Predict the 3D structure of the following.
Amino acid sequence: MDKMDSRALSEFFNMLLEAERAGVKVLGELVRQVEAQQLKTLLNKFLRDEGVNCRILVSFINDLGEAPSDKTGAFAEKVFALDTLHEKMNLLIRGQEWVARKIREFRNRLPAGSTHLFLEAIKIQHEENVDSLKKYLAE
Ligand SMILES: [Fe+2]
């Protein structure tokens, strides 16, 4: 597969930026709502990572000379529309899986070096989050 040009790359990064921003919104709210300390600690770690990811993605988009999106993914409203914490956690797992899957789809077309490494780190982080949430829900 060919490497992506600047426009395609910035569209990919903006798609992830909107998703990560939705993650920050969702997690910020869930951290406040959740009472179980173990889950709160877990979600706080996700929240920190998603915030860092937003900053990394904005830097990449700026480096390309493109404009970072100021939108927030529709994912946040979908989570807030659910009634139970269990449903919210299950949708959160699907959202985390979606990000990891998108990076897997595009990773061979990313520029080598730090871009590839940072995106790989974001992918692994989301895979770990899925594993941690599934483990927590199974306990
Ligand atoms: Fe995320």
User: Anything to note?
Assistant: The two ends are 42 Å apart (CA to CA). The domain at 6-138 is CATH 1.20.1260.10 (Ferritin).
